[in-house]
């Protein structure tokens, strides 16, 4: 039972670390915005660094939300005049 749980957690962890297609497209656009095209030798490094930066940003947001679990939206108050 324990080994199944460990394998399942490892699989979920690997899936969570994979980059999505949206992240790759955003990284490609950011590389092109600084003048690095697919033909440049620095393109792979640029793609990797922007993808890692995106992952780091998402991780920091998740961490801060876990530290301060408050609602992002305000709840409407209703005042009743008695």
Please tell me about this protein's structure.
The chain has a domain of about 50 residues. The model has no long low-confidence stretch (mean pLDDT about 80). Helices cover about 65% and strands about 0% of the residues. It is built from three helices and no strands.
End-to-end CA span: 61 Å
Query: What is the overall shape?
Result: flat
**Class inferred from helices and paired strands:** mainly alpha
Mean pLDDT: 79
Q: How many β-strands, per DSSP?
A: 0
Write a short abstract of this structure.
With 82 residues, this protein is mainly α. It is flat, with a radius of gyration of 21 Å. It has helices at 2-17, 21-33, 43-67.
Quickly list its features:
flat; mainly alpha; 82 residues
Element layout with pairings:
Layout: H1 2-17, H2 21-33, H3 43-67
